[in-house]
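Data availability (excerpt). The following record was deposited with the supplementary files.
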Amino acid sequence: MENTSSTQMHRILVVNPRTCFTKIAVYDNNRLVYLNKINHSSEDCKKFNNILDQYEFRREAILKDLANADIDTWRITAVVGRGGYLKPLESGIYEVNDKMKDDLVRNPAGQDSVNLGALLVDEIAKKLGSVKAYITNPIVVDELDDIARISGHPLFPRRSIFHALNQKFLARKFARQNSRPYEEMNLIIAHLGVGFSVGAHKNGRVVDVNQAFDGYGPFSPKRAGTLPAGELVRMCFSGKYTSEEMERMVMGDGGLVAWFGTEDVQKVEKMAFEEENKQARIVYEAMAYNAAKEIASLSVVFNGKPDAILLTGGLAHSQRFVRFIIDRVQFIAPVHVFPGGDGTEAMAMNVLAALKGERPIKQYI
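Predicted structure:
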């Protein structure tokens, strides 16, 4: 049985599966006691027909790693995994159940490594005994205002798919730092990673955000973002490309990958500013310019008066990149930079709050 006492020690195992690796962490309450990135070779991954087939392979790798690290797994009180491509959900902490697992396996939107998260933690929790498995704030968190769902054609509604885990965690963290409830703040948060998502957090809800998976918004290291619609349609029916090739063009082979064959922002920065490659410089600056435009566009959600703008994600480590953005948006509101944010801490702290009784545990139905 879970003890929701605020004084109990909770040991939480975090499982974050990504394309080429699985990151695991162990927290004793809010103290990180173990962190490791289990790399999976391309040769190993190629043995499987699809991502879900990697399930047993990754599970055994996690259990082996914990054993090698002498982690007392009998002390684990909860296991939390990365949330996947489920149906649209309100934000929060969800207990993994059969309905959730079935939806992840049968997902019509396609498969991604994050879909393994709930499957892995559920099996690991069962092996550990009387332990429950959770996910929290998956990428399909949907709190959009009705007006934000409308596009220029009824067949193309705007959808909410974004870096909800990192954005929500940072929003609450920033609110605490300012001694204010998240539910009373108005924030614009830009997650700048291999994909960019920019969300308007209004009184505790993300009421508008770009669809950052394969939809629209600023281009990024691996994603094309919004493209000229007419030209995109004509290219789709040109006969030159398959459906799969077009999808890769939009997500995976878009952005910096399309321009320079790499998603490595540091490499492009070097090309642009050390090697004085003019094309690299203008594309790099255009990426920041597009992110700034997306941020500025969301200021209308707050009638031009958000409380703050927060920049996070891997690219927030680049002082040059964030400087390009800050210079263009600081007239709107104070800008604060929080580099990084892979979600590991966010998952652990969200579940810890739930185990302490500070946040509700929701059921996926």
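Summary of structural features: The radius of gyration is 21 Å.
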